[in-house]
Design goal:
The chain is of the alpha/beta class. It has a single domain, classed as NAD(P)-binding Rossmann-like Domain (Rossmann fold), CATH 3.40.50.720. It contains eight helices and seven strands; from the N terminus they run E-H-E-H-E-H-E-H-E-H-E-H-H-H-E.
């Protein structure tokens, strides 16, 4: 039996990188998959791949930084599949690279709007539906920078610390309602987001700082997310699980 048989699962930012890997892993583990992205071509391509492999999937074009889009996403999932059991709020951006005293106000607002506000909006509407279901499991995508600094990225660091705190609050509030909420903190993963923000020399340097001496793979994060979303982790809530190849161990 697969880990997510008879479940309806959702992932934001599912068109590429970690989000795509999560969507594919959800499908492989038996879930009906809904995914959202701001890139329609990428999102539809992932849905096509899932269907080609015998799964069932739905793409929703949406901006995760907008409250109304997050509300609409849940409504569309329920209209299509009748319920929502599992979610991973993954969409995020790195933002401007600058020290805090020189960080642009609009750049700060953009990062917080997606990385923190967007996660809150998603949880806000997912929780209402999961209560109607009688339970559910949410995984919020944080980062190792939910616990350590990312110099030159104050908005990213602040947003990811906020995601960890929000996750703990939800776990405390909804534990008796059969809804679990955990956060995952990836280290540096080989994804388009990393490629857009770092050159090859910097990526090699960062990889060397992890005790495993490499960047992570999106699929490695997806496997952890699916475990936390599944009944295999039924007594686990309010946790913050770092997967960074040993980057923060030293």
């Amino acid at each position: 039996m697969s880990l997510l048989d008879n479940k309806v699962a959702y992932v934001s930012g599912g068109g590429s990188g970690i989000g795509k890997a999560i969507a594919l892993c959800y499908a492989r583990e038996g879930a009906k998959v809904a995914l959202s992205d701001i890139n329609e071509d990428h999102g539809k391509a992932v849905v096509d791949e899932i269907i080609k492999n015998g799964g069932e999937a739905l793409f929703i074009l949406a901006d995760s930084s907008k409250a109304e889009d997050n509300e609409r996403i849940v409504k569309e999932i329920v209209a299509a599949y009748g319920r929502l059991d599992v979610a991973c709020n993954n969409a995020g951006i790195g933002g401007q690279v600058a020290i805090t005293g020189e960080y642009a106000i609009d750049a700060w607002d953009k990062v917080i709007a997606l990385n923190l506000n967007g996660v809150f909006y998603a949880c806000r509407y997912q929780l209402v539906q999961m209560e109607k279901n009688g339970g559910g499991s949410i995984v919020n995508m944080a980062s190792i920078h939910g616990t350590v600094a990312a110099p030159m990225s104050p908005a990213y660091t602040a947003s990811k610390h906020g995601v960890v705190g929000l996750t703990k609050n939800i776990a405390a509030e909804y534990g008796q309602k059969n809804i679990r909420c955990n956060a995952v903190g990836p280290g540096y993963i080989a994804t388009p987001l990393l490629d857009e923000n770092l050159d090859e020399e910097t990526k090699a340097f960062i990889a060397s700082k992890a005790s495993m001496n490499r960047l992570g793979k999106a699929e490695e994060i997806a496997e952890l997310v699916v475990f936390l979303n599944s009944d295999k982790s039924s007594f686990t809530t309010g946790g913050y699980f770092i997967a960074d190849g040993g980057y923060t161990a030293v």
